Amino acid sequence: MINTIEEAYLNGVISDFLGHSERCGTVWIPGTDEEAIKELIPRFRRVVRDLIDRGLVEIREPCNAIWADAPELDDQEIDEVLADPGTWLKAPGSVNRMVMLMPTPRADRLISR
User: Fold this and answer.
1) How far is Cα 50 from Cα 31, in angstroms, rounded to an integer?
2) Rounded to an integer, what distance in angstroms lies between the CA atom of residue 58 and that of residue 81?
3) Strand-pair partners of 58
4) Do residues 10 and 88 lie in contact, with contact meaning Cβ atoms separated by under 8 Å?
5) What is the Cα–Cα distance from 92 to 112, expressed in whole angstroms?
6) Global pTM?
7) Which of 87, 1, 89 is nearest to 37 (CA)?
8) What top-level branch of life does the organism fall under (predicted)?
9) Residues whose CB falls within 8 Å of the CB of residue 93, separated by 6 or more in sequence, listed in order
10) 90: helix, coil or strand?
């Protein structure tokens, strides 16, 4: 949910999870182990899908980094996006999908944002 509140991209979520802090907690260093990220994709795919199903998170794939310009995804498109490893990896030389996370109005109300 922190990544969602930060309106982050899915290709940074697992690397954030695998990261660590430095400089007494003032700097967060994302994990870069591509194999470790790949192993966690099924787990995170289920978590994000569950958050979507609960009405807390929405995902979109804007081509220009502007959320409002991207069309909403239907259930089949969501499943396809979440199943694509390119959604979760941010690797040089790979096809990186730029899929954004955004909290729904319901999530904003629940966290008093």
Assistant:
1) 24
2) 12
3) 102
4) yes
5) 38
6) 0.88
7) 89
8) Bacteria
9) none
10) coil
The two three-digit tokens of residue 30, written as one number: 């994302």
Q: Does residue 113 surpass a pLDDT of 80?
A: no
H/E run at residue 57: strand 57-60
Sketch the domain layout of the chain as residue ranges. 4-111
Tokens 């929405």 found at: 58
CB 54 within 8 A of CB 92: no
Query: What mean pLDDT do residues 39-43 have?
Result: 97
> Confidence class of residue 26 from pLDDT cuts 50, 70 and 90?
confident
Given phi > 0 = left and psi -120 to 50 = alpha, else beta, which region is 73?
beta
